Amino acid sequence: MRRLVHVVLILALGLPAGTAVAQAPSEEEKASQSLYKKGKTKFDAGDWIAAEDLFTKSLAVFANPYARLYRAASLAHLARCDESRGELARFSPDQVAAKARDKARMMVDQVKAMCAPAPAPAKAVAPAVVEAPVAQVPTNVPPATAAVEPSAAVVVEPPPPVPERGKGRAGGGKGPLLVSPDGTGDFVRLEDAVAKAKPGALIRLAPGLHRLSKPLDITTAVRIVGDGKSAVIVGDGEGHVLRFVGKGPFELHDLSVEHQGGRWARVIVVEDGDVDFRGIRVSGGVRDAAARRGGEGLLLLGNAAGTITGSEFTGNALHGVKLAGRAHPLLDGNGARSNGKGGIVWFEDASGTARANTCTANGQYGMAVVDRAAPKLVANVCVDNLRGGLYLESGRLDGLEDNRCPMYHPK
Q: Range of 186's domain?
């Protein structure tokens, strides 16, 4: 079955190498495209381990939709179906060139078929009951009183209730608000749920892509929860995907937030207040080099505080996490990899604690502390970063405990 699917993918579903764009591709797009082409060659040769690795590297540089689709296919061939479904949840045929969409849809169907759950065992079927002829019931007897022989009775289960589609109830005190793009929840769009949510409301995201029509600003203390990284908030606007301004707490749990496209943007911006981020994946920050703006996965400003734990910041053009102003959160057990410059960096008067984070394969440093920033760094690991593990602009060595981050010393 897998060999047949592979043949179909090669002969019938080959996709073009890239999408025509009005402007010249950036250096990141060129690098991503080169890795994608190498991965496609490995995929066509049946070397799905090497292909998956190359597609992963391509996506870490730039959110190439073709690489995402082929990574999902490679993972399916490797029987890593949970990861494959996660990639498909972040892919839409609308992201590729119009002439390739039908083939992309067909490929999505093939990948889903490869990772389809095994059919449930067939239930035993009771022998058919042949009904005896039923005597005529007098017309003056109500139907409810007509006698039916037990052996001839047929029990008909009532159909399950049909959920109301996008009913849009207000949040707060009446259970979570469900956002489902297919219309089976309380809201179809996350923007509408946030607009109706009362302080402290819980917003649950159904699996799949939750596309924003524009950058979303949040001022109310809400908790947005997914079911894992298969719930993906996607934006392609300029400036940011999500921005929180308020006292908080602002909570994001078990979901992904991704910026797509070429407009400059940070992915998540917190301008003040407390946050609680757990198990989130943040990617796709785009840098406007000429204007020196954008490119961060997570930007914390003002007096932002709280906890960020068990999360991943990857494939952002500048930094995975940047703390500035007087931000002072706890970062615990996060990963920052394949970002253009730094994994986790502190600027201005930022502080707080970073504990047991891992920063790998970033374009310059795993961690950097500059300006007057003074965080406490405990048991962090930095490996395979281009210039070094830890850059201390001020040269301060207090606040460092048990880190495995080679020091970078400018020449």
A: 177-401
